[in-house]
Design a protein that fits this description.
This protein has two domains: about 35 residues, no CATH class; about 55 residues, no CATH class. The protein is about 75% helix and about 0% strand. The longest helix has 23 residues.
Length: about 110
């Protein structure tokens, strides 16, 4: 897990070239998480998400048909569902440890 957060941190703090490498590494880590923990998008999850997206429209059934009529649109929904699955998995494994710190320490300013 530490490597995942390190990859995220590197994406925002290193030059673009290094950030691209971190993005690739993060993609590999996430792909392995999905594979190893069966986090792929299930058809019922995709259907539920499409229906949620369509619910706010005047004709939801038309919107659902619109998503299902194009594999690229459906792949976008699938990616969102996978992202949600990975997020839920990581959060379920996270351990919170409270540690009191001063504002300066939190902001990285040593007094």
């Amino acid at each position: 897990m530490r490597g995942l957060w390190l990859s995220l941190l590197l994406m925002w703090t290193l030059p673009a070239e290094a950030g691209e490498l971190a993005t690739v590494r993060l993609g590999l880590v996430v792909a392995e998480l999905v594979r190893a923990n069966d986090l792929q998008a299930k058809p019922d999850q995709i259907k539920t998400h499409v229906e949620e997206l369509a619910a706010s429209y005047e004709k939801p059934a038309d919107v659902v048909r619109w998503y299902y009529s194009d594999n690229r649109r459906l792949a976008e929904v699938e990616a969102i569902v996978i992202e949600n699955n990975v997020t839920q998995f990581v959060l379920s494994k996270a351990m919170v440890v409270e540690k009191p710190v001063s504002f300066e320490e939190l902001m990285g300013q040593q007094a």
